[in-house]
Design goal:
Length: 133
């Protein structure tokens, strides 16, 4: 609470008025009566390929409820991103027999999921990712 000061020493206490805040006080409004603006509005930085890949991986893991192996592709697509994620669909012993799937997630510029689909399924050791002979 601001301190009070007397107008004059010989005036009664009823003449006490609140002290004015200093000119630089941030609680004061500018003379026009408009609220003081703290800083110009900043937009969040544009999504990078790395953050798009992380977002796509998270979305696929949540939707499929399966273990993800990793991001296989991140590509700008229109106003958003296309992210490829490899998922373990069925664990086998030995692990070379695992069934994997490749999912593609389409994200908007902010990283929100627009659509996803399973593109293909393959056995881990089969070279199903288009590897050489």
């Amino acid at each position: 609470m601001p301190t009070r000061k007397r107008v004059r020493e010989d005036e009664p206490a009823s003449a006490v008025r609140p002290a004015r805040p200093p000119t630089g006080d941030p609680r004061r409004l500018p003379p026009t009566g408009e609220p003081r603006r703290s800083s110009p509005e900043r937009r969040p930085p544009a999504m990078t390929a790395a953050t798009a890949g992380q977002a796509g991986l998270r979305h696929i893991a949540e939707l499929t409820a399966r273990e993800t192996e990793g991001v296989t592709r991140v590509r700008p697509e229109g106003d958003g991103w296309l992210v490829g994620v490899e998922v373990v669909e069925d664990r086998r012993i030995p692990s070379s027999g695992d069934i994997l799937a490749l999912y593609e997630a389409e994200l908007d510029a902010g990283g929100e999921l627009l659509s996803y689909q399973r593109v293909k399924r393959y056995r881990r050791g089969s070279g199903g990712m288009g590897e050489g002979p």
